[in-house]
Amino acid sequence: MKMIGVKIQRPVRKIEPLQIKMIHTAVSRLNLDDDIYRTILYRFSGKESCKDMTYLEASRTIDYFKTLGFKIPRRKKYTKGTPARQDYRSVPRKERPSNVFVLPSREQLDMIDALAGQVKWRVEDGFNHWVKKYYKIDRIKSEMEASDVIEGLKKLLDHQIGA
């Protein structure tokens, strides 16, 4: 059974909080007074408050602000005291949540390669055997394991040089 001439209405996407924030930032950066701001909103959406707008209306309004010279601000870089969402390297181990798992850094892996190259191994695959025997791991998977292996290699190297 075909339905001819019937339009299916799609749900209207509401304005997102980031869009509201961007509109208010644009108004303040462009030094627009309240009357001009409300006029622009009414022109692009027929509404006097940006909270009542749809996603598409807000997007058009932001595009208009861009033509007036508004530039979307870049995200702020995190300062030393505030870790990024997934950057827990700067947070001390004891202060990290228990479920956070930090991968070893490139510098740590390079340091391990350099130290393992300086050690005189008695067998061909000596480093891998040493890691399995003393750290009970097949490969280095975390920042903490990498740190422990680096310290162990330093001590092993000191022992070989001193002996």
Descriptive overview:
- The chain is mainly alpha-helical.
- Among the domains are: 17-67; 106-162, no CATH class.
- The protein contains 6 helices and no strands.
- Helix 1 (17-29) packs parallel to helix 3.
- The N and C termini lie far apart (91 Å).
- The mean pLDDT is 84.
Q: Give the fraction of residues assigned to helices.
A: 40-55%
Number of strands: 0
Summing up helix and strand content along with how strands pair, one would put the structural category as mainly alpha
Question: Low-confidence stretches at least 5 residues in length (pLDDT < 50)?
Answer: none
Report the principal-axis shape.
elongated
For the biggest sheet, the summary is:
none
Number of helical elements: 6
What assembly state would you assign to the polypeptide chains in this entry?
A: single chain
Mean pLDDT, rounded to whole units?
84
Strand and helix order: HHHHHH
Q: Which radius of gyration do the C-alpha atoms yield?
A: 30 Å
Q: Report how far the terminal alpha carbons are from each other.
A: 91 Å
DSSP strand (E) fraction? Answer: under 5%
Question: Main traits of this protein?
Answer:
163 residues, mainly alpha, 6 helices
Q: How would you sum up this structure in a few lines?
A:
It is built from six helices and no strands. The chain has 163 residues and is an all-alpha fold. Helix 1 (17-29) runs parallel beside helix 3, helix 2 (34-45) packs across helix 3 (55-67) and helix 4 packs parallel to helix 6.
